[in-house]
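Lab notebook page, bench 4
Experiment: in silico fold of construct C2
Operator: M.H.
Input chain length: 589 residues
Purpose: comparison with the prior construct
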Amino acid sequence: MAISVQHVVVLLLSTLLIAITFFLFTSDNARFPFPSLSTTDYYTPNPKSPIPHRIVDVSSDQTPQKMKLNTSLEVGELKWDLCKGAESVDYIPCLDNYAAIKQLKSRRHMEHRERHCPEPSPKCLLPLPDNYKPPVPWPKSRDMIWYDNVPHPKLVEYKKEQNWVKKEGEFLVFPGGGTQFKFGVTHYVEFIEKALPSIKWGKNIRVVLDVGCGVASFGGSLLDKGVITMSFAPKDEHEAQIQFALERGIPATLSVIGTQQLTFPSNAFDLIHCARCRVHWDADGGKPLLELNRVLRPGGFFIWSATPVYRDNDRDSRIWNEMVSLTKSICWKVVTKTVDSSGIGLVIYQKPTSESCYNKRSTQDPPLCDKKEANGSWYVPLAKCLSKLPSGNVQSWPELWPKRLVSVKPQSISVKAETLKKDTEKWSASVSDVYLKHLAVNWSTVRNVMDMNAGFGGFAAALINLPLWVMNVVPVDKPDTLSVVYDRGLIGVYHDWCESVNTYPRTYDLLHSSFLLGDLTQRCEIVQVVAEIDRIVRPGGYLVVQDNMETIMKLESILGSLHWSTKIYEDRFLVGRKGFWRPAKPELR
């Protein structure tokens, strides 16, 4: 049968179309879902990427308009420089802004230890310490870390009589001592248990705040008891104490009780601890203690171990009498006061569960806060007023751990039970089916995790049985869900991702972002956010992003300029892994 010319043309066009389709779907630019990834199977960004390339010096303050990335994918082939200065290896932009600190009119209330972020945010990269090594794995890291990773000897000498930390060969070793832990931190924790048997670690006490934590040995010792402790201290003369804590794999953050509220929600912590934390609780009309009262949940405990509790010299007696007056004015009751065999004493206070005591005070000083508190405590001044208690039956909340992980507080206005249930199920399925099975992450090397957009804490809840911990970050421009995170028995902070985080460099093994970075480009440059991510993540650590492909393509190009290896999964997940690459040091002339 004769074949017409028309049939031949159709056949040729069909063949050509099939060939083109086959080429497109097998080219380097095609991205297929893949069933499993090796933890060493990475590729660098495709040199044939459709994103236009051009050289841009991101360290310059005069960043070209196209680098703002609000409306364009044109990120260019970025050129990075090392941050300058002898202290750049441990640079924390918002705490090391010495130009702003010099301009302060007062340092009386620790203003110089608070956040003073530079403008614009820096886009340089931090050098690595000489001889930096992959961290000692958990749980061995709780007791010893590489000295070269945090080469700070001052605290070893300064606290040598108190057994905070010792240098032994290549390691810094943590014997579990402390200013108040004369017989070790284990003995001290047992002392607390005997002093108040109603404290059940890992049951009714799950979330703890340790004020002025030193190297976080108190919080570290409670991990085995099912307790997660937010340990905090300022960046001060106790050199690198928080850096030591995070290198050990213990939750910690840099903060200070100064002139602004702590970046935690109200009624969050089951127990607050202070062992010689050097905070003047009665300062400025008692504002520091009123701030503790704000973040302590109703019925929660405050443990204060300091010389005014067990010494009777003139100075200590005066401080004790001031504390008696102040705690009485806010209706805290003393549930026990005792001294152990080492001569160290403590007092344990309890916050009321009802406002009836507030109303019965002879003088309303401090007064009840008369306006609705902004729960997102971000750059909020300390107030000289008494936070109101939440409504409802607060005595029945929280439930015992671990049941509270999947429970909702009665009368909660932040989340409904069905909403939390669906969110928990979604993250549980996603983590088990995708994050743990198919993404190029070696989870056995992951200890310190930060969730950049935590929501209700579902990602952290889904990882609860792994030997890691999660710092849940609730961005200040997103719905305020941090109180739900704490109600579930997890920890976290408020933060604005257009600014630098209060943490040392190289302190997290994995940062996670779920549909955050795309929206963030409407407020600040994605390049500066990625520079901050690079500052925080350890060499060998990961960035895991769930987002749309437009955002993922931007990130892939920027991470490639940083020599991170990347992998994309199902056009929705990006895994970046940081290497040891740093820009060359400028030549001396």
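Observations: The first helix runs from residue 5 to 26. Confidence is low (pLDDT under 50) at residues 20-75.
Next step: discuss at group meeting.
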